[in-house]
Amino acid sequence: MAYAIEMLNITKDFPGIRANDNVTLQVEENTVHALLGENGAGKSTIMSILFGLYQPTSGTIKVKGKEVTISDPNVANQLGIGMVHQHFKLVECFTVTENIILGDEPKGKFGTIDIKKAAVRVKELSELYGLNVDPYAKIRDISVGMQQRVEILKMLYRNADILIFDEPTAVLTPQEIHELMHIMRNLVKEGKTILLITHKLKEIKEAADKCTVLRKGKCIGTINVKETSEEEMARMMVGRDVSFAVEKDEAHPKEKILEIKDLCVKNVKGLMAVKNFSLDVRAGEIVGLAGIDGNGQTELVYALTGLCKAESGQVLLRGNDILKLPIKKRLDSGMAHVPEDRHKHGLVLDFTLKENFVIHYYDREPFSKHGIMQQDEIDKYADKLIEQFDVRSGQGKETVVRSMSGGNQQKAIIAREIDRSSDLLLVVQPTRGLDVGAIEYIHKRIVEERDKGKAVLLVSFELDEIMNLSDRIAVIHDGELSGLVYQKDVDENVLGLMMAGSLKKVEAVV
Ligand SMILES: Nc1ncnc2c1ncn2[C@@H]1O[C@H](COP(=O)(O)OP(=O)(O)OP(=O)(O)O)[C@@H](O)[C@H]1O
Ligand SMILES: [Mg+2]
What we know:
CATH class of the largest domain: Alpha Beta
Oligomer: single chain
CATH architecture of the largest domain: 3-Layer(aba) Sandwich
Strand order of the largest sheet: 16-19-20-13-21-22-23
Bound molecules: adenosine-5'-triphosphate, magnesium ion
Mean pLDDT: 93
Number of domains: 3
Radius of gyration: 24 Å
Shape: globular
Protein backbone atom coordinates (compact mmCIF):
# COMPACT_ATOMS: atom_id res chain seq x y z
CA MET A 1 0.00 0.00 0.00
CA ALA A 2 1.19 3.52 -0.80
CA TYR A 3 1.94 6.07 1.90
CA ALA A 4 0.19 9.44 1.78
CA ILE A 5 2.51 10.82 4.43
CA GLU A 6 5.88 9.74 5.76
CA MET A 7 7.44 11.67 8.62
CA LEU A 8 10.87 10.15 9.16
CA ASN A 9 12.99 10.59 12.29
CA ILE A 10 11.38 13.87 13.25
CA THR A 11 12.87 15.75 16.19
CA LYS A 12 11.56 19.07 17.49
CA ASP A 13 13.07 21.07 20.33
CA PHE A 14 11.34 23.84 22.22
CA PRO A 15 12.91 25.85 25.05
CA GLY A 16 13.45 23.34 27.83
CA ILE A 17 11.83 20.39 26.13
CA ARG A 18 12.20 17.94 23.25
CA ALA A 19 8.60 17.75 22.07
CA ASN A 20 9.31 15.14 19.39
CA ASP A 21 12.23 12.78 19.70
CA ASN A 22 13.15 10.87 16.54
CA VAL A 23 9.51 10.09 15.70
CA THR A 24 8.65 8.15 12.57
CA LEU A 25 5.08 8.18 11.36
CA GLN A 26 3.91 6.50 8.17
CA VAL A 27 0.33 6.96 7.06
CA GLU A 28 -1.19 4.80 4.36
CA GLU A 29 -3.41 6.41 1.75
CA ASN A 30 -7.14 6.16 2.23
CA THR A 31 -7.07 5.25 5.89
CA VAL A 32 -7.88 6.84 9.23
CA HIS A 33 -4.64 6.89 11.23
CA ALA A 34 -4.94 7.79 14.92
CA LEU A 35 -2.33 9.43 17.14
CA LEU A 36 -2.53 8.58 20.80
CA GLY A 37 -0.48 9.85 23.72
CA GLU A 38 -0.50 11.53 27.09
CA ASN A 39 -1.03 15.26 27.50
CA GLY A 40 2.16 16.89 26.29
CA ALA A 41 3.39 13.77 24.45
CA GLY A 42 3.94 15.83 21.30
CA LYS A 43 0.89 15.03 19.17
CA SER A 44 -0.11 18.58 18.29
CA THR A 45 3.53 19.44 17.69
CA ILE A 46 4.14 16.76 15.09
CA MET A 47 0.90 17.62 13.32
CA SER A 48 1.80 21.31 13.36
CA ILE A 49 5.07 20.39 11.69
CA LEU A 50 3.18 18.52 8.99
CA PHE A 51 0.98 21.58 8.51
CA GLY A 52 3.98 23.89 8.21
CA LEU A 53 3.39 25.80 11.46
CA TYR A 54 6.69 24.63 12.91
CA GLN A 55 9.93 23.51 11.29
CA PRO A 56 11.40 20.27 12.60
CA THR A 57 14.80 20.51 14.28
CA SER A 58 15.73 17.47 12.18
CA GLY A 59 14.06 14.77 10.10
CA THR A 60 12.45 14.41 6.69
CA ILE A 61 8.90 14.57 5.41
CA LYS A 62 7.57 12.85 2.31
CA VAL A 63 4.16 13.51 0.80
CA LYS A 64 3.02 10.77 -1.58
CA GLY A 65 6.56 9.49 -1.84
CA LYS A 66 8.18 12.84 -2.61
CA GLU A 67 10.45 14.59 -0.15
CA VAL A 68 9.17 18.07 0.70
CA THR A 69 9.90 21.10 2.86
CA ILE A 70 6.71 22.48 4.36
CA SER A 71 7.79 25.99 5.18
CA ASP A 72 4.35 27.38 6.00
CA PRO A 73 0.65 26.42 5.93
CA ASN A 74 0.24 27.74 2.38
CA VAL A 75 2.76 25.18 1.22
CA ALA A 76 0.86 22.54 3.18
CA ASN A 77 -2.33 23.60 1.42
CA GLN A 78 -0.66 23.31 -1.96
CA LEU A 79 0.42 19.80 -1.04
CA GLY A 80 -3.18 18.95 -0.22
CA ILE A 81 -2.79 18.99 3.56
CA GLY A 82 -5.47 20.60 5.73
CA MET A 83 -5.83 20.87 9.50
CA VAL A 84 -8.62 21.36 12.03
CA HIS A 85 -6.94 22.72 15.16
CA GLN A 86 -7.51 21.78 18.78
CA HIS A 87 -8.78 25.32 19.30
CA PHE A 88 -10.73 26.48 16.26
CA LYS A 89 -9.44 29.40 14.28
CA LEU A 90 -12.63 31.10 13.08
CA VAL A 91 -13.66 34.77 12.96
CA GLU A 92 -16.79 34.93 15.11
CA CYS A 93 -18.45 37.91 13.42
CA PHE A 94 -17.92 36.54 9.89
CA THR A 95 -20.30 34.22 8.09
CA VAL A 96 -19.50 30.61 7.33
CA THR A 97 -18.58 31.43 3.73
CA GLU A 98 -16.44 34.43 4.68
CA ASN A 99 -14.47 32.23 7.04
CA ILE A 100 -14.02 29.48 4.50
CA ILE A 101 -12.66 31.73 1.76
CA LEU A 102 -10.44 33.78 4.08
CA GLY A 103 -7.04 33.98 2.39
CA ASP A 104 -8.36 32.34 -0.78
CA GLU A 105 -11.08 34.79 -1.88
CA PRO A 106 -12.64 34.31 -5.34
CA LYS A 107 -12.30 37.56 -7.29
CA GLY A 108 -15.45 39.16 -8.74
CA LYS A 109 -15.76 42.19 -11.02
CA PHE A 110 -13.61 45.29 -10.34
CA GLY A 111 -11.57 43.60 -7.68
CA THR A 112 -14.53 42.72 -5.47
CA ILE A 113 -14.99 39.38 -3.74
CA ASP A 114 -17.54 37.06 -5.29
CA ILE A 115 -19.25 35.83 -2.13
CA LYS A 116 -22.19 34.31 -4.01
CA LYS A 117 -19.99 32.07 -6.10
CA ALA A 118 -18.15 30.95 -2.99
CA ALA A 119 -21.39 30.28 -1.11
CA VAL A 120 -22.62 28.05 -3.94
CA ARG A 121 -19.43 25.99 -3.76
CA VAL A 122 -19.67 25.79 0.03
CA LYS A 123 -23.22 24.53 -0.27
CA GLU A 124 -22.24 21.91 -2.86
CA LEU A 125 -19.40 20.60 -0.72
CA SER A 126 -21.58 20.62 2.36
CA GLU A 127 -24.13 18.46 0.55
CA LEU A 128 -21.57 16.11 -0.98
CA TYR A 129 -20.19 15.15 2.44
CA GLY A 130 -23.46 15.41 4.36
CA LEU A 131 -22.31 18.32 6.51
CA ASN A 132 -25.51 20.35 6.48
CA VAL A 133 -23.97 23.79 6.98
CA ASP A 134 -25.71 27.11 6.20
CA PRO A 135 -23.22 29.19 4.15
CA TYR A 136 -24.67 32.49 5.36
CA ALA A 137 -24.90 31.81 9.12
CA LYS A 138 -22.63 33.83 11.39
CA ILE A 139 -20.06 31.79 13.34
CA ARG A 140 -21.09 33.23 16.73
CA ASP A 141 -24.67 32.01 16.16
CA ILE A 142 -23.89 28.37 15.40
CA SER A 143 -23.07 25.50 17.72
CA VAL A 144 -19.55 24.26 18.35
CA GLY A 145 -20.33 21.12 16.33
CA MET A 146 -21.32 23.26 13.35
CA GLN A 147 -18.22 25.42 13.75
CA GLN A 148 -16.15 22.33 13.44
CA ARG A 149 -17.88 21.42 10.21
CA VAL A 150 -16.96 24.87 8.95
CA GLU A 151 -13.33 24.01 9.71
CA ILE A 152 -13.76 20.77 7.77
CA LEU A 153 -15.29 22.67 4.84
CA LYS A 154 -12.36 25.07 4.93
CA MET A 155 -10.07 22.13 4.17
CA LEU A 156 -12.33 20.64 1.53
CA TYR A 157 -12.75 24.02 -0.17
CA ARG A 158 -8.98 24.08 -0.64
CA ASN A 159 -9.13 20.57 -2.13
CA ALA A 160 -7.16 19.04 0.69
CA ASP A 161 -6.98 15.26 0.58
CA ILE A 162 -4.90 14.71 3.71
CA LEU A 163 -6.95 15.92 6.63
CA ILE A 164 -5.56 16.43 10.13
CA PHE A 165 -8.00 16.52 13.06
CA ASP A 166 -6.52 17.61 16.39
CA GLU A 167 -8.87 16.37 19.13
CA PRO A 168 -11.98 17.04 17.11
CA THR A 169 -14.36 15.40 19.55
CA ALA A 170 -13.24 17.06 22.77
CA VAL A 171 -15.83 19.77 22.32
CA LEU A 172 -18.62 17.68 20.81
CA THR A 173 -21.69 16.04 22.25
CA PRO A 174 -22.08 12.25 21.93
CA GLN A 175 -24.52 12.70 19.07
CA GLU A 176 -22.15 15.04 17.24
CA ILE A 177 -19.26 12.65 17.82
CA HIS A 178 -21.20 9.87 16.22
CA GLU A 179 -21.98 12.05 13.23
CA LEU A 180 -18.34 13.10 12.92
CA MET A 181 -17.15 9.48 12.86
CA HIS A 182 -19.65 8.90 10.08
CA ILE A 183 -18.38 11.96 8.20
CA MET A 184 -14.81 10.67 8.53
CA ARG A 185 -15.70 7.31 7.08
CA ASN A 186 -17.44 9.18 4.20
CA LEU A 187 -14.34 11.25 3.60
CA VAL A 188 -12.16 8.15 3.41
CA LYS A 189 -14.63 6.60 1.00
CA GLU A 190 -14.23 9.68 -1.22
CA GLY A 191 -10.48 9.11 -1.31
CA LYS A 192 -9.24 11.23 1.60
CA THR A 193 -6.62 10.25 4.17
CA ILE A 194 -7.25 11.24 7.78
CA LEU A 195 -4.94 11.82 10.72
CA LEU A 196 -6.88 11.82 13.96
CA ILE A 197 -5.68 12.89 17.39
CA THR A 198 -7.94 11.79 20.20
CA HIS A 199 -7.79 10.65 23.81
CA LYS A 200 -10.92 8.58 23.47
CA LEU A 201 -10.04 4.97 22.90
CA LYS A 202 -13.60 4.17 21.93
CA GLU A 203 -13.34 6.57 19.03
CA ILE A 204 -10.10 5.05 17.85
CA LYS A 205 -11.79 1.67 17.95
CA GLU A 206 -14.77 3.02 16.03
CA ALA A 207 -13.05 5.04 13.32
CA ALA A 208 -9.35 4.30 12.96
CA ASP A 209 -7.43 1.65 11.02
CA LYS A 210 -3.97 2.21 12.48
CA CYS A 211 -2.80 3.95 15.63
CA THR A 212 0.60 5.36 16.51
CA VAL A 213 1.37 5.84 20.20
CA LEU A 214 3.63 8.60 21.51
CA ARG A 215 5.00 8.94 25.02
CA LYS A 216 7.06 11.91 26.23
CA GLY A 217 7.98 12.82 22.67
CA LYS A 218 9.03 9.31 21.65
CA CYS A 219 7.28 6.90 19.33
CA ILE A 220 6.25 3.76 21.21
CA GLY A 221 4.85 1.94 18.21
CA THR A 222 2.15 1.64 15.58
CA ILE A 223 -0.62 -0.89 15.99
CA ASN A 224 -3.48 -2.36 14.03
CA VAL A 225 -6.58 -1.05 15.77
CA LYS A 226 -8.74 -4.09 15.10
CA GLU A 227 -6.30 -6.40 16.83
CA THR A 228 -5.67 -4.27 19.93
CA SER A 229 -7.90 -3.78 22.95
CA GLU A 230 -8.59 -0.46 24.65
CA GLU A 231 -6.71 -1.62 27.74
CA GLU A 232 -3.63 -2.46 25.70
CA MET A 233 -3.69 0.93 24.01
CA ALA A 234 -4.00 2.69 27.38
CA ARG A 235 -1.08 0.71 28.73
CA MET A 236 1.12 1.53 25.73
CA MET A 237 0.28 5.15 26.18
CA VAL A 238 0.96 5.70 29.89
CA GLY A 239 3.26 2.74 30.53
CA ARG A 240 1.08 1.20 33.26
CA ASP A 241 -2.41 -0.20 33.73
CA VAL A 242 -5.18 2.38 33.85
CA SER A 243 -8.38 1.90 35.78
CA PHE A 244 -11.45 3.15 33.94
CA ALA A 245 -13.75 2.83 36.95
CA VAL A 246 -13.77 5.35 39.78
CA GLU A 247 -13.39 3.94 43.26
CA LYS A 248 -15.50 5.67 45.84
CA ASP A 249 -17.43 4.97 49.00
CA GLU A 250 -20.99 5.98 49.59
CA ALA A 251 -21.47 9.69 50.15
CA HIS A 252 -22.34 11.11 53.56
CA PRO A 253 -23.91 14.42 52.64
CA LYS A 254 -24.35 17.09 55.27
CA GLU A 255 -25.76 20.62 55.19
CA LYS A 256 -26.89 22.39 52.03
CA ILE A 257 -24.11 24.48 50.52
CA LEU A 258 -25.67 25.57 47.25
CA GLU A 259 -29.38 26.27 46.87
CA ILE A 260 -30.71 27.27 43.49
CA LYS A 261 -34.32 28.44 43.68
CA ASP A 262 -36.59 29.09 40.70
CA LEU A 263 -33.76 30.47 38.66
CA CYS A 264 -34.53 32.01 35.27
CA VAL A 265 -31.74 33.06 32.92
CA LYS A 266 -31.85 34.42 29.37
CA ASN A 267 -29.30 33.49 26.71
CA VAL A 268 -27.41 35.94 24.47
CA LYS A 269 -30.31 35.99 22.04
CA GLY A 270 -32.70 37.13 24.75
CA LEU A 271 -34.59 33.85 24.94
CA MET A 272 -35.25 32.14 28.27
CA ALA A 273 -32.59 29.42 28.51
CA VAL A 274 -33.01 28.39 32.17
CA LYS A 275 -36.59 28.12 33.38
CA ASN A 276 -37.57 28.03 37.05
CA PHE A 277 -34.65 25.79 37.80
CA SER A 278 -34.22 24.58 41.38
CA LEU A 279 -31.47 22.33 42.74
CA ASP A 280 -29.59 21.87 46.01
CA VAL A 281 -26.09 20.54 46.48
CA ARG A 282 -24.96 19.44 49.95
CA ALA A 283 -21.57 19.27 51.57
CA GLY A 284 -20.00 15.89 50.89
CA GLU A 285 -21.86 14.97 47.74
CA ILE A 286 -21.28 15.13 44.01
CA VAL A 287 -24.29 16.17 41.99
CA GLY A 288 -23.86 15.59 38.28
CA LEU A 289 -25.78 17.78 35.87
CA ALA A 290 -26.42 15.81 32.70
CA GLY A 291 -27.90 17.16 29.52
CA ILE A 292 -27.34 17.59 25.83
CA ASP A 293 -25.20 20.63 25.05
CA GLY A 294 -27.28 23.76 24.54
CA ASN A 295 -30.06 22.96 27.00
CA GLY A 296 -29.25 25.78 29.40
CA GLN A 297 -26.17 24.39 31.19
CA THR A 298 -23.92 27.22 30.03
CA GLU A 299 -26.40 29.92 31.06
CA LEU A 300 -27.01 28.22 34.41
CA VAL A 301 -23.30 28.13 35.21
CA TYR A 302 -22.85 31.70 33.97
CA ALA A 303 -25.60 32.88 36.30
CA LEU A 304 -24.14 30.97 39.27
CA THR A 305 -20.65 32.35 38.73
CA GLY A 306 -21.68 35.86 37.72
CA LEU A 307 -20.61 35.66 34.08
CA CYS A 308 -24.17 36.72 33.16
CA LYS A 309 -27.19 38.18 34.95
CA ALA A 310 -30.14 36.09 36.06
CA GLU A 311 -33.69 37.28 35.32
CA SER A 312 -35.21 36.06 38.54
CA GLY A 313 -34.84 33.53 41.32
CA GLN A 314 -32.29 33.02 44.08
CA VAL A 315 -28.91 31.41 44.46
CA LEU A 316 -27.79 30.81 48.04
CA LEU A 317 -24.25 29.86 49.00
CA ARG A 318 -24.20 28.79 52.64
CA GLY A 319 -27.49 30.63 53.07
CA ASN A 320 -26.35 33.95 51.58
CA ASP A 321 -27.88 35.21 48.37
CA ILE A 322 -24.98 35.70 45.97
CA LEU A 323 -26.91 36.63 42.81
CA LYS A 324 -26.23 40.34 43.13
CA LEU A 325 -22.57 39.94 44.04
CA PRO A 326 -19.82 40.68 41.53
CA ILE A 327 -17.76 37.72 40.28
CA LYS A 328 -14.79 38.14 42.57
CA LYS A 329 -16.96 38.44 45.67
CA ARG A 330 -18.77 35.25 44.74
CA LEU A 331 -15.54 33.37 44.33
CA ASP A 332 -14.23 34.83 47.57
CA SER A 333 -17.33 33.69 49.40
CA GLY A 334 -16.41 30.06 48.77
CA MET A 335 -16.88 29.06 45.16
CA ALA A 336 -14.28 27.39 42.96
CA HIS A 337 -14.98 27.19 39.24
CA VAL A 338 -13.49 25.14 36.43
CA PRO A 339 -15.04 26.88 33.42
CA GLU A 340 -16.26 25.33 30.20
CA ASP A 341 -14.09 27.54 28.01
CA ARG A 342 -10.55 27.33 29.34
CA HIS A 343 -9.15 30.04 27.12
CA LYS A 344 -11.93 32.58 27.65
CA HIS A 345 -12.53 32.19 31.36
CA GLY A 346 -9.89 29.90 32.82
CA LEU A 347 -6.46 31.31 32.05
CA VAL A 348 -4.59 34.41 31.06
CA LEU A 349 -2.70 32.85 28.17
CA ASP A 350 0.14 35.34 28.09
CA PHE A 351 0.84 35.03 31.81
CA THR A 352 3.16 32.37 33.14
CA LEU A 353 1.95 29.22 34.80
CA LYS A 354 2.78 30.48 38.29
CA GLU A 355 0.99 33.76 37.69
CA ASN A 356 -2.08 31.84 36.62
CA PHE A 357 -1.91 29.71 39.75
CA VAL A 358 -2.15 32.70 42.09
CA ILE A 359 -4.55 34.70 39.99
CA HIS A 360 -7.24 34.71 42.71
CA TYR A 361 -4.89 35.27 45.62
CA TYR A 362 -1.95 37.32 44.40
CA ASP A 363 -3.00 40.22 46.64
CA ARG A 364 -3.13 38.21 49.86
CA GLU A 365 -0.82 36.59 52.28
CA PRO A 366 1.31 34.62 51.84
CA PHE A 367 1.63 35.70 48.18
CA SER A 368 1.65 39.42 49.02
CA LYS A 369 2.84 41.28 52.06
CA HIS A 370 2.34 45.04 52.55
CA GLY A 371 1.46 45.34 48.89
CA ILE A 372 4.57 43.54 47.68
CA MET A 373 4.38 40.22 45.88
CA GLN A 374 6.34 37.44 47.54
CA GLN A 375 7.97 35.58 44.66
CA ASP A 376 9.41 32.87 46.89
CA GLU A 377 6.00 31.92 48.18
CA ILE A 378 4.48 32.01 44.71
CA ASP A 379 7.28 29.81 43.35
CA LYS A 380 6.90 27.32 46.16
CA TYR A 381 3.16 27.10 45.69
CA ALA A 382 3.50 26.71 41.91
CA ASP A 383 6.01 23.89 42.26
CA LYS A 384 3.68 22.11 44.64
CA LEU A 385 0.72 22.22 42.23
CA ILE A 386 2.87 21.24 39.25
CA GLU A 387 4.08 18.18 41.07
CA GLN A 388 0.77 17.10 42.53
CA PHE A 389 -1.17 17.44 39.32
CA ASP A 390 1.65 16.43 37.00
CA VAL A 391 1.38 19.61 34.91
CA ARG A 392 3.92 19.16 32.12
CA SER A 393 5.55 21.98 30.19
CA GLY A 394 8.89 23.13 28.83
CA GLN A 395 9.91 25.59 31.53
CA GLY A 396 7.94 24.59 34.58
CA LYS A 397 6.34 27.43 36.53
CA GLU A 398 7.92 30.03 34.23
CA THR A 399 6.24 28.64 31.09
CA VAL A 400 3.94 31.03 29.30
CA VAL A 401 0.62 29.22 29.38
CA ARG A 402 -0.11 29.82 25.70
CA SER A 403 2.76 27.50 24.76
CA MET A 404 1.51 24.62 26.89
CA SER A 405 -0.32 21.63 25.44
CA GLY A 406 -4.13 21.81 25.64
CA GLY A 407 -4.44 19.05 28.22
CA ASN A 408 -1.80 20.55 30.47
CA GLN A 409 -3.56 23.92 30.35
CA GLN A 410 -6.67 22.14 31.56
CA LYS A 411 -4.74 20.39 34.32
CA ALA A 412 -3.41 23.76 35.47
CA ILE A 413 -6.93 25.18 35.90
CA ILE A 414 -8.12 22.11 37.75
CA ALA A 415 -5.10 22.18 40.05
CA ARG A 416 -5.74 25.80 40.94
CA GLU A 417 -9.44 25.39 41.54
CA ILE A 418 -9.30 22.13 43.45
CA ASP A 419 -6.55 23.42 45.69
CA ARG A 420 -8.48 26.55 46.69
CA SER A 421 -10.26 26.51 49.99
CA SER A 422 -13.85 26.56 48.82
CA ASP A 423 -17.17 25.13 49.96
CA LEU A 424 -18.51 24.64 46.47
CA LEU A 425 -16.56 23.13 43.60
CA LEU A 426 -18.32 23.92 40.35
CA VAL A 427 -16.65 21.94 37.57
CA VAL A 428 -17.70 22.08 33.94
CA GLN A 429 -16.30 19.42 31.62
CA PRO A 430 -13.30 18.97 33.91
CA THR A 431 -11.59 16.26 31.90
CA ARG A 432 -12.11 17.68 28.42
CA GLY A 433 -8.98 16.96 26.43
CA LEU A 434 -7.24 14.99 29.18
CA ASP A 435 -5.51 11.66 28.64
CA VAL A 436 -6.86 8.55 30.39
CA GLY A 437 -4.16 8.64 33.06
CA ALA A 438 -4.91 12.27 33.91
CA ILE A 439 -8.65 11.58 33.93
CA GLU A 440 -8.11 8.80 36.43
CA TYR A 441 -6.21 11.19 38.73
CA ILE A 442 -8.62 14.13 38.40
CA HIS A 443 -11.61 11.89 39.12
CA LYS A 444 -9.87 10.59 42.23
CA ARG A 445 -9.18 14.13 43.38
CA ILE A 446 -12.78 15.24 42.86
CA VAL A 447 -13.98 12.33 45.00
CA GLU A 448 -11.39 13.26 47.65
CA GLU A 449 -12.69 16.83 47.70
CA ARG A 450 -16.18 15.46 48.24
CA ASP A 451 -14.94 13.35 51.11
CA LYS A 452 -13.29 16.40 52.65
CA GLY A 453 -16.75 17.95 52.75
CA LYS A 454 -16.96 20.08 49.64
CA ALA A 455 -20.18 20.30 47.68
CA VAL A 456 -19.44 19.37 44.08
CA LEU A 457 -21.58 20.34 41.12
CA LEU A 458 -20.28 18.54 38.03
CA VAL A 459 -21.55 19.65 34.63
CA SER A 460 -20.58 17.23 31.89
CA PHE A 461 -21.78 16.10 28.49
CA GLU A 462 -20.14 12.75 29.00
CA LEU A 463 -22.51 10.21 30.41
CA ASP A 464 -19.68 7.94 31.51
CA GLU A 465 -18.24 10.72 33.61
CA ILE A 466 -21.62 11.62 35.11
CA MET A 467 -22.34 7.97 35.92
CA ASN A 468 -18.87 7.32 37.33
CA LEU A 469 -18.63 10.31 39.65
CA SER A 470 -22.09 11.44 40.73
CA ASP A 471 -23.97 10.54 43.88
CA ARG A 472 -27.10 12.22 42.61
CA ILE A 473 -27.81 13.14 39.01
CA ALA A 474 -29.82 16.12 37.83
CA VAL A 475 -30.90 16.33 34.22
CA ILE A 476 -31.57 19.55 32.36
CA HIS A 477 -33.69 19.61 29.24
CA ASP A 478 -34.74 22.79 27.46
CA GLY A 479 -33.78 24.81 30.52
CA GLU A 480 -35.94 22.81 32.90
CA LEU A 481 -35.08 20.21 35.48
CA SER A 482 -36.30 17.02 33.84
CA GLY A 483 -34.68 14.58 36.22
CA LEU A 484 -33.25 14.30 39.71
CA VAL A 485 -32.31 10.79 40.75
CA TYR A 486 -29.82 8.82 42.79
CA GLN A 487 -27.01 7.50 40.62
CA LYS A 488 -27.55 3.94 41.79
CA ASP A 489 -31.21 4.05 40.67
CA VAL A 490 -30.60 4.83 36.99
CA ASP A 491 -28.83 3.56 33.93
CA GLU A 492 -27.69 5.39 30.82
CA ASN A 493 -30.85 4.57 28.88
CA VAL A 494 -33.11 6.20 31.44
CA LEU A 495 -30.79 9.21 31.58
CA GLY A 496 -30.90 9.39 27.80
CA LEU A 497 -34.67 9.57 27.86
CA MET A 498 -34.62 12.34 30.43
CA MET A 499 -31.98 14.24 28.46
CA ALA A 500 -34.16 14.02 25.38
CA GLY A 501 -37.12 15.31 27.35
CA SER A 502 -39.27 12.24 26.87
CA LEU A 503 -39.22 11.23 30.54
CA LYS A 504 -39.55 13.34 33.66
CA LYS A 505 -38.54 11.99 37.04
CA VAL A 506 -37.77 14.34 39.91
CA GLU A 507 -37.50 12.14 42.99
CA ALA A 508 -34.13 12.60 44.71
CA VAL A 509 -35.09 15.93 46.31
CA VAL A 510 -33.31 16.62 49.60
N1 LIG B 1 5.09 26.79 20.82
C1 LIG B 1 5.64 26.14 21.86
N2 LIG B 1 6.61 26.70 22.60
C2 LIG B 1 7.17 26.04 23.63
N3 LIG B 1 6.83 24.79 24.01
C3 LIG B 1 5.86 24.18 23.32
C4 LIG B 1 5.21 24.82 22.20
N4 LIG B 1 4.28 23.98 21.71
C5 LIG B 1 4.35 22.88 22.47
N5 LIG B 1 5.30 22.99 23.42
C6 LIG B 1 5.67 21.96 24.41
O1 LIG B 1 5.87 20.75 23.72
C7 LIG B 1 5.31 19.64 24.44
C8 LIG B 1 4.36 18.87 23.54
O2 LIG B 1 3.20 19.64 23.33
P1 LIG B 1 2.00 19.20 22.39
O3 LIG B 1 1.08 20.38 22.32
O4 LIG B 1 2.54 18.67 21.13
O5 LIG B 1 1.34 18.03 23.26
P2 LIG B 1 0.06 17.13 22.91
O6 LIG B 1 0.52 15.72 22.78
O7 LIG B 1 -0.70 17.71 21.79
O8 LIG B 1 -0.76 17.23 24.30
P3 LIG B 1 -2.36 17.44 24.60
O9 LIG B 1 -2.95 16.08 24.62
O10 LIG B 1 -2.36 18.01 25.99
O11 LIG B 1 -2.91 18.35 23.58
C9 LIG B 1 4.66 20.23 25.66
O12 LIG B 1 5.47 20.01 26.76
C10 LIG B 1 4.53 21.72 25.39
O13 LIG B 1 4.65 22.46 26.56
MG1 LIG C 1 -2.54 18.71 21.65
